[in-house]
Amino acid sequence: MGRIQASPEIETQDPVQQVNSYPQNFQTGQTPQIGNPWNSGLFDCHLDQTNAWMTALSPCVTFGQIAEVLDASEPSQGSQLTCPIGSLIFLLMGVLCTNTLIGSKFRAKLRKKYGLVEAPYQDVLSHLICPCCSLCQEFRELKSRGLDPSLGWQGILAQQQANQYGNVQMNTAPPAQAMSM
Q1: Angle CA(120)–CA(80)–CA(99) in degrees, nearest 5?
Q2: How far apart are CA 90 and CA 83, in angstroms?
Q3: ∠ Cα 129 132 134 (to 5°)
Q4: What single-letter DSSP state applies at residue 165?
Q5: For residue 136, is pLDDT > 70?
Q6: Would you say 45 and 134 are in contact if contact means Cβ atoms under 8 Å apart?
């Protein structure tokens, strides 16, 4: 009396849900890839030949451009790398054979920012196997999203401002000035 009896719940299992659930994928070795696809493949360097040559001859410059755009677009993250400083860091890390680590760090930052899938390889492996292809892919990804790393962050801001105002140049004379003694 005064006690409420809970009715027993009957669990039904959907066979489609069973097949696609995580444990079955884990057992077969298939890991589901979560995230948005990259706009171009890792080995699509031929899509931007100027960047491909620049990266092949001087990968530190391409890294510096990417680092500047990624750091400047998130000012709350602390220190901001400029292209020359980023290039120098990548060059020094190359001398120490650790540029794979810093390259993969910025690749992960780019993936996180745009929700990209970690494919076709892990970030460290991408930069270890083919650092130039990884840098080119990151460069193309930013460029396809309207952030051309070759312009630098200030150039991107100027381009966005020009697009906002319809590429109208303001050609007005400065106000009259006078020297006072």
Answers
A1: 45
A2: 10
A3: 70
A4: T
A5: yes
A6: no
